[in-house]
Design goal:
heterodimer, A: 114 residues, mainly beta, seven-stranded mixed beta sheet, four-stranded antiparallel beta sheet, 11 strands, B: 114 residues, six-stranded mixed beta sheet, 52% strand
C-alpha cells in the first residue's frame, strides 16, 4: 500500500491559464473522489468516480472544470481559464467499494492563482 | 441537504489531559455513517474513528472514543491522555451512503500543550 499520490504538490499560475492535476489512487481501490479545501474550511466534494465512470458531480464543478479517470486507474482534474477563486487545496481520495469504508487521502495539490 | 456543524474553531488541551470535540449534523436519512478525520499540519488527512448510525454502541479506537447521540444528531470525539502528536485539525464528516461522498464540517484546530 503506497498510499494516494497527487502531483504536483504545489502549482502557481497566472489567472486565465489552464492547469491539470493528477491523482494516483491506491491500486485496489475502485472509487476515487476529488475535494476542494479553502483556508479555514473543511473539504468540499467535487466529483466521484467508480472505476472509469464519473457518477456524481457537485454544483461546485463549473464547466471550466473537467475530471477524467481513463481505464479506472489514475485521475486528472483540469481547470480551464483559472480565476482567483480557484485558489485552494485540491484533495484526492480513494476507497474500496461498499458503505462504511474509509477514504484514503493524498497530500493534495495547492493551487495559487497570481 | 445534509450539513455538519463544528462549533469550536479552536481548542487547547494540556498533554495527558482529556478533551472533547463537538459535532452536530442534520439529515433526514435513517442510516448513515459518521467519521472523524485528523489533518496534521501540512500532512495527509487520516481516519481517526467511525460510527455506523444503526449501531447504538459508541465506537472506540485506543485513546479515541465517540459519544453518538442519534436523536440529538450529535457525534462528539473524546481524546484521552492527549499527546503532542494529536495536535491537528479535526474534521467531522457525514456519509449518506449512496456514493459515500463525505460532507465535512469546518474543523476544530486542536493544540496539545506540553
Amino acid at each position: 500500500d503506497t498510499g494516494v499520490s497527487q502531483n504536483p504538490r504545489h502549482k502557481i499560475t497566472k489567472r486565465g491559464q489552464n492547469v491539470t492535476f493528477r491523482c494516483d489512487p491506491i491500486s485496489e481501490h475502485n472509487r476515487l473522489y476529488w475535494y476542494r479545501q479553502t483556508l479555514g474550511q473543511g473539504p468540499e466534494f467535487l466529483t466521484y468516480f467508480q472505476n472509469e465512470a464519473q457518477l456524481e458531480k457537485s454544483r461546485l464543478l463549473s464547466d471550466r472544470f473537467s475530471a477524467e479517470r481513463p481505464k479506472g486507474s489514475f485521475s486528472t482534474l483540469e481547470i480551464q481559464r483559472t480565476e482567483q477563486g480557484d485558489s485552494a487545496m485540491y484533495l484526492c481520495a480513494s476507497s474500496s467499494p461498499g458503505p462504511f469504508v474509509a477514504q484514503h487521502f493524498g497530500d493534495g495539490t495547492r493551487l495559487s492563482i497570481l | 441537504a445534509q450539513t455538519v456543524t463544528q462549533s469550536q474553531p479552536e481548542m487547547s488541551v494540556q498533554e495527558a489531559e482529556t478533551v472533547t470535540l463537538s459535532c452536530t449534523y442534520d439529515t433526514s436519512e435513517s442510516n448513515y455513517y459518521l467519521f472523524w478525520y485528523k489533518q496534521p499540519p501540512s500532512r495527509q488527512m487520516i481516519l481517526v474513528i467511525r460510527q455506523e448510525a444503526y449501531k447504538q454502541q459508541n465506537a472506540t479506537e485506543n485513546r479515541f472514543s465517540v459519544n453518538f447521540q442519534k436523536a440529538a444528531k450529535s457525534f462528539s470525539l473524546k481524546i484521552s491522555d492527549s499527546q503532542l502528536g494529536d495536535t491537528a485539525m479535526y474534521f467531522c464528516a457525514f456519509d449518506g451512503g449512496a456514493t459515500n461522498k463525505l460532507i465535512f464540517g469546518t474543523g476544530t484546530l486542536l493544540a496539545v500543550q506540553p
